[in-house]
Amino acid sequence: MVGARGNNGGAPDFEEFVQACGPRLLRVAWLLTADAHLAEDLLQTALAKVWPKWRRIATEHPEAYVRKTMVNTHASWWQRRWRSEVPHAELPDRVAGGDPFAGVDLEQALAAAVRQLPSRQRAVLVLRYFEDLSVEETAETLRCRPGTVKSQSGKALRTLRALLGDTPFLSSDGPESRRGPQAALSRIGGRPHA
Asked: What value does the mean pLDDT take over residues 58-87?
């Protein structure tokens, strides 16, 4: 339990923090990297970076600090990595309306589209729609202005709409059609703030 206090002046014990928040932080890492192994590496790297500072950060908002460390570490990894387009010979088939696997297909299509976003836009979407942070909290985590979060979020959602085209959740039949990828993001990972 995170509320339990260790021997370090009333701060949560590091191991207890990792046990309580680790799965949630690993999910954020996976959403940022889109790779299970890289996600584990990212989380482990972030935890190794905060460990020496634990006494100082443990009494404030340690989860936010670790999350910010993961976003910054991922951004530095992203800058070093060679990025290129990967062409595909065939487009994926459309999902039928009554398909029992439509939710899985939607998640996979959305995950593939999110992986194509620039690092900053991906970070904004992960923090806003999967981690359910407000615009202000996202801006603080990314060290930018709230307007930047809004514009990056808008650009990312427009890109997702373009990438996903006329997938079933973008059709005009359902209540989610008005929000497109935003509704799918919120359904899969959490709910967005207005």
From this structure: 78
- The gap between the terminal CA atoms of the chain, to the nearest Å, is 31
Same domain assignment for residues 76 and 106: no
Residue by residue, DSSP assigns 106-168 as HHHHHHHHHHTS-HHHHHHHIIIIIS---HHHHHHHHTS-HHHHHHHHHHHHHHHHHHHTT-G
Q: DSSP for 85-111, please give it.
A: ----SSPPPPPPTT-TTHHHHHHHHHH
pLDDT digits (tens, 9 = 90+) for 88-140: 667 666 554 556 666 677 778 888 888 889 989 999 988 998 888 999 999 99
Residue 107 in any domain: the answer is yes
CB atoms within 10 A of CB 66: 23
Asked if residue 24 is part of any domain, the answer here is: yes
179 φ/ψ angles, rounded to the nearest 5 degrees: -110, -10
Q: Is residue 92 part of a domain?
A: no
